[in-house]
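note to self: dont lose this again. the chain is below, predicted strucutre after it. 359 aa total, dont forget to put it in the shared folder this time
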Amino acid sequence: MRKLWRAALDSVTPYEAGKPLEALAAELGVAELVRLSANEHPLGPSPRVIDALRREAPHVHLYPDGGSTALREALGRQLGLAPAQIVIGNGADELITLIALAAFEPGDEVVMPQPSFEPYATGATIAGARMVQSPLAGYDTDLEDMRRRVTPRTKAVFLCSPHNPAATIIPRRALLAFLEALGGDPPLIVLDEAYHDFVDDPDYPDGVTLLAHHPRLLVLRTFSKIAGLAGLRVGYALGSLETMDRLNRVRAPYNVNRLGQVAALAALGDAEHAARTRALVLEERRFVMAGLAERGITCSPSQANFLLVRVPDPRRAREQLARGGILVRDGAAVGFPGHLRISLGTREVNERVLKLLEE
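---
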């Protein structure tokens, strides 16, 4: 019998995004359901983004700029990089796929924390590479363990800071020591900084400042979190000219749509909205963590826009929250049984979360 599909696909589980909010609300019998399960923006996009989308809507019959030129130039000015050091993707997920397409071959090894963001493993598996997983030390990335797992067959190392789902950071000194320990011929180091805008720990290293001294470093960022553009899927990769050239060779020519490009440009131009978002997340993170502590509930030391919360009965807690109109993520689904992953909302929503958990 003719074999049609690649054997590697047998090891891939399709990502389950869940039912639409409207369908879930109807099932639960609640008038409105607040989704705190996907780390989405609590305020929504900037008004400038909405205006830009309205202006651009009549032009969606035209192909977008295949290279996202204006957006790369704007990011380059903001970050102090050449536009050629930037690749724009259909979300960071596509960029992770591009890394796998450009670099991974059967027999390669890819080192990553366990648990961590699911697409790291998916990309490696589909490419036929072997995942080498390094268990977290509690809620923290164990860089010593990861370094010991790097071999001559290692093609890439994935790091996530703040980590998803643990929400913890890799401190500056530890990251620099790890990069130096890999020597003069390291594998590709993919540093996922999707949540970097919400960090207030002074010991957090900015990956962009490390690029000049570490040409094998590749930094991933996104407009989904701080800018509230999750529905438009715009992420970006930052790295050396060689790395960007290789990603561009496997990137589709019109991978980021017109609306996504103009929305991201408008978001870059509204620093006040970004500052307002950051301030809200930091304030609500302190509020919710203090409220959990008062109720005897523990969570990881979050530096992101979500919390990983330990509860004695996750199923019961999720059901209680859902009946109260709050949707959260089961920690077991992201590698942390006995936990819930809860995004930060507005004060009103966060007060409801605390009350429902207490009940």
